[in-house]
Specification:
The chain is α/β, with parallel strands linked by helices and about 325 residues long. It has two domains: about 240 residues, 3-Layer(aba) Sandwich (Rossmann fold), CATH 3.40.50; about 80 residues, CBS domain Like, CATH 3.90.1280. β9 and β10 form a beta hairpin. The longest helix has 17 residues. The structure holds adenosine-5'-triphosphate and magnesium ion (MG).
Length: about 325
């Protein structure tokens, strides 16, 4: 869907984006992760021509973006700006209806779409007539997302879409975001410097430093097989938590052999989806005072019960396996 080749950008004679290349498959999410000033926003803005590259190429759906007017490209790509960037003198509805308006949708269709998006993003319907300063930070962030989704673009660029939120609201919106079906089908490039968010939402992570991609791959690759010291150190502060987050119940299931049913009380058992990360599983077991977790798949076939010890044992085995391959 997107192919970026050898992108370079100089500011004041300094190379701030240095030979950045990646591709993102349709429906996947690439997270650009990195320290402040590493060139994430600049890279993102070169994808929709808000910034013109000094070198390199961006190809979207097989077409070089230089062959199209910047305005035409931006109408086809959703964009969530760092620091939200709603227009202060436009109401919420006017902000959301911006791109549909430019695309000359009929007024009624724009109005319907606004209402639909407010519901989708769990915002009160009467919010439409208010101005951005009359909203909480979390609401503004949701409106920013609604605006990017308004014309239903297949490709969305997001620059720290949850940056301005307190940890509790942030986690809630991240989870909703992860579960929105409309978003799962989109191709997304998302910038963040929150590693936990990156691991939660990314199909692939590109970790940047000094304008260069240091490593790109599945979150597991970056955590368990870092290519250099920068990559290793970047995750070190929260390494254990992140490793528990990236390993899913499903990965554990492939590890353990099926035993006969254990003798247990039902209230000791916590039922969880196989897609859940180990960190959430262990935290939930702690909260609910559960002794075993029962992973379920779509067909609800699994009869396996796993204790904390079994989970952690499988976790360390998996980690070892990953490191040695
Ligand atoms: N318009 C500009 N003119 C001059 N220098 C710029 C401009 N925009 C960005 N830079 C510089 O380019 C570098 C990369 O900036 P960029 O905004 O891409 O970083 P970032 O990775 O998004 O950082 P952050 O996480 O802080 O948002 C920085 O050193 C920044 O100071
Ligand atoms: Mg930035």
């Amino acid at each position: 869907m997107i192919e970026v080749k050898g992108l370079c950008k100089y500011f004041d004679g300094k190379l701030v984006v240095d030979q950045v290349s990646f591709h993102v498959r349709k429906g996947n999410t690439l997270v650009l992760l990195g320290t402040s000033g590493s060139g994430k926003t600049t890279t993102l803005k070169m994808i929709n021509r808000l910034i013109e590259p000094d070198d390199g190429q961006v190809i979207i759906d097989g077409k070089d973006i230089r062959d199209h007017q910047p305005e035409a490209i931006r109408r086809r790509i959703g964009y969530v700006i760092q620091h939200i960037g709603l227009f202060p003198h436009y109401t919420v509805s006017q902000n959301i209806g911006l791109v549909p308006g430019l695309l000359r949708w009929p007024a009624q269709k724009i109005q319907d779409r606004c209402r639909e998006l407010l519901v989708l993003l769990s915002l009160p319907e009467d919010l439409g007539n208010r101005y951005p300063h009359e909203l909480s930070g979390g609401q503004q962030q949701r409106v920013g997302l609604a605006r990017a989704l308004a014309a239903d673009p297949p490709l969305i660029l997001l620059d720290e879409p949850f940056g301005a939120l307190d940890p509790i609201t942030k986690r809630q919106i991240q989870q909703e975001f992860d579960q929105l079906d409309t978003l799962r089908q989109k191709t997304m490039v998302m910038v963040t410097h929150d590693v936990s968010e990156a691991i939660m939402l990314a199909d692939e992570i590109a970790l940047m430093d000094k304008g260069k991609i240091q490593q790109m791959g599945h979150p597991k690759d970056l955590l368990f097989a870092p290519v250099n010291d920068f990559v290793r150190k970047f995750f070190d502060a929260q390494r254990f938590r992140l490793e528990l987050q990236v390993i899913k119940l499903q990965d554990i299931l492939a590890q353990v052999s099926v035993e006969p049913d254990k003798q247990v009380n039902e209230h000791q058992v916590l039922v969880m989806d196989q897609q859940t990360g180990l960190l959430d599983v262990l935290e939930e077991m702690e909260r609910k005072d559960a002794v075993f977790v029962k992973p379920i798949d779509v067909q609800q076939k699994s009869r396996l019960l796993l204790s904390r010890e079994e989970l952690l044992h499988a976790f360390y085995t998996l980690k070892q396996q990953f490191k040695s391959t």
